[in-house]
Request: fold
Amino acid sequence: MARILVVDDSPTELYKLTGMLEKHGHEVLKAENGADGVALARQEKPDAVLMDIVMPGLNGFQATRQLTKDPETAHIPVIIVTTKDQETDKVWGKRQGAKDYLTKPVEEDTLIKTLKSVLGG
Reply:
């Protein structure tokens, strides 16, 4: 299946998302902040990135923008997965280049469907 990079500063969220993805046969890479996520994406070229917003240092909006504007990583779809559920956040996330925007707690079916859709499956 796909290699998915999960960028989230919450160990609980990393654990939950990893469990859902691995159950569906995906390989999971993990980063605990935006800067590490950008570096890992450049290094590993995952098939997709699940990006939290509220993180120390480089936040998810900034990290998403860096990935989608960089010719090396622009082809990698970014899905924002966050507790921020305001319409303005969703619009801003898409403006940064995110392919989709999911609100936590995310349902497993929704996550897998969204992944399939951005991976063209």
